[in-house]
Amino acid sequence: MNNWIRKSILLNLLMVYSALGFSEPHRDSVSKEEVNGTFIMPFPKPHNDISNTLTIHALGGGKINISFNLIYPYVVNGELQANTGELSAVANIKGDTAVYSSSEYGQCTITITFIKPGVLSVTQEGSDADCGFGHNVYANGTYYKKPK
Question: Does residue 101 have a pLDDT over 90?
Fold first, then answer.
């Protein structure tokens, strides 16, 4: 087998390994100190002074209070415009993952995963309308804890 084929096989194996998402393992729990606080997801330039905000408060008993203030910034004729979305609800938390689900507007599921202290990942299943948000407004992204 020539050297090029070996390198190609090794590269393909590495790509498969990374695609399978072998990342940090899920944790059995997260502390109240890690959960409580305000988390922001800043937008890239030119809107990097704007951010989505998620405030979380641990309630105990596997429940957390979540409050999203979301925005979709865009420019029309040189003027900054925005669509918005808000959500305040109680989510269930198990280990390092909290899940909120509602069918009020359509099927909406928001999953919050505490990646490491100060960093969480939010995924939204369901459209902007399914979750009761404005046009193009989504909760998806990586959020960082705001310093006190």
Answer: yes
